[in-house]
Design brief:
379 residues, alpha/beta, Aspartate Aminotransferase, domain 2, Aspartate Aminotransferase, domain 1, eight-stranded mixed beta sheet, four-stranded antiparallel beta sheet, 35% helix, binds pyridoxal-5'-phosphate
Length: 379
């Protein structure tokens, strides 16, 4: 194909909402640093997900960092963290000089396994925090995970970077734990070109995060600093894009869900292909449609990736788990699988993320499907 088909690319509203908000910022010269768009975007995200407070930041990674800092995570502290994720989930633990312990996934949601989490608490009874990820937009087993965290009185941070708009028992991901974070990076379900949001019920801590993320300037005429600050705040222009994008979030979720259903239907007759499951009591945003290929299948994930690449179609392997990453090799990993064969590793080895771009036409998706089907038919 001449036109590249993307995994997920920025998709601005056809109405041009984003440009209206940016124009307003230009007209009032509220280009930087802060302004109405930042305040409103925080309010609008908080309203959408159903939390009291939100702080708009420069990235999802910055939001995770600030959540850890708000929980006073520091040197000597242990933080339990989903292993099957993007490295941005774990890196801020190291920024705070704390020690990650990586937790394996389970097969029903691909997210943190409550059994492995229990096991981690047996080995390390006093972690400072737990970070759970909602992978590819699919909510983790929040009832079980909340129950364990509450029983041990340990605060939970939800990395909902990929799951904005997903719900678990009708409650939005990002609102179960003490802190939730969202990302508006270029490939996410809505984007501001780059940005993030920290949400919480704790007004005082959110205010503190705004303070830290604007260089920790004390109230004084001169520049007075009692704490180390960060330059992590979202700009008023970027927030304008976010306000426009938020207006089409529900539309994007609908489109992503149609893409998922179309793949599911197309592959229903190919027994070697399984879609990432939709767990009970959840409504995922279907940010990415992801399949796994049976280990016994003659067709390997790499065959799919390479065939589609030749057709100018973008795919990706599933995230390589953090416990397998050279940079994190010194840290512990806890799995509850009986044969010690981690679920995360298996998902990494058998999974393929398929094009889930909302700008992809139905005809283009048919080409993707056809190419994959051909591989299985001739094998
Ligand atoms: C994208 C992503 C992040 C980081 O968000 P940025 O805004 O790119 O910093 C963190 N965690 C997960 C799971 C992500 O997919």
């Amino acid at each position: 194909m001449e036109k590249k088909i993307f995994l997920a690319s920025p998709h601005m509203s056809k109405e041009g909402y984003e440009q209206e908000f940016i124009k307003e910022a230009f007209d009032t010269n509220w280009i930087a640093p802060l302004g109405e768009n930042v305040n409103k975007f925080e309010e609008e995200i908080a309203n959408y997900v159903g939390t009291k407070h939100a702080a708009a930041l420069s990235s999802g990674t910055a939001a995770i960092h600030m959540a850890l800092k708000a929980l006073d995570v520091k040197q000597g502290d242990i933080v339990f963290c989903s292993s099957l994720t993007f490295s941005a989930t774990a890196n801020p633990i190291i920024y705070q000089n704390a020690t990650p312990v990586f937790i394996d996934s389970e097969k029903e949601t691909w997210n943190m396994d409550p059994k492995a989490l229990e096991k981690a608490f047996e080995k390390y009874p006093n972690p400072k925090a737990v970070i759970v990820v909602h992978l590819y937009g699919t909510p983790a087993k929040m009832d079980e995970i909340m129950e364990i965290c509450n029983a041990h009185n340990v605060p939970l941070i939800e990395d909902a970077a990929e799951s904005l708009g997903s719900t678990y028992r009708n409650k939005q991901t990002g609102t179960f734990g003490k802190y939730g974070i969202f990302s508006f990076n270029g490939n996410k379900i809505i984007t501001t070109s780059g940005g993030g949001m920290l949400v919480s019920e704790n007004a005082e801590k959110i205010q503190k995060v705004r303070f830290w993320s604007t260089q920790a300037r004390e109230k004084a005429r001169h520049y007075e600093h009692k704490e180390i600050g960060y330059n992590y705040r979202m700009s008023n222009i970027v927030a304008g894009i976010g306000r426009g994008q938020l207006k089409v979030l529900d539309e994007r979720i609908k489109e992503k869900t149609e893409i998922y259903n179309q793949y599911k239907e197309a592959f229903a007759t190919i027994t070697d292909i399984k879609m990432q499951p939709v767990p009970v009591n959840t409504v995922p945003n279907h940010w990415l449609s992801v399949i796994t290929i049976d280990k016994q299948s003659k067709v390997k994930p790499l065959d799919i990736i390479e065939k589609l690449e030749k057709e100018n179609i973008e795919t990706r392997p599933v995230w390589k788990p953090m416990d397998l990453q050279p940079v994190f090799k010194e840290y512990d990993f806890i799995t509850a699988s009986i044969d010690n064969q981690s679920v995360g590793k298996e998902l990494f080895e058998t999974g393929v993320c398929l094009p889930s771009d909302t700008k992809m036409t139905k005809e283009e998706q048919d080409v993707v499907i056809q190419n994959i089907k051909e591989l299985f038919e001739c094998n």
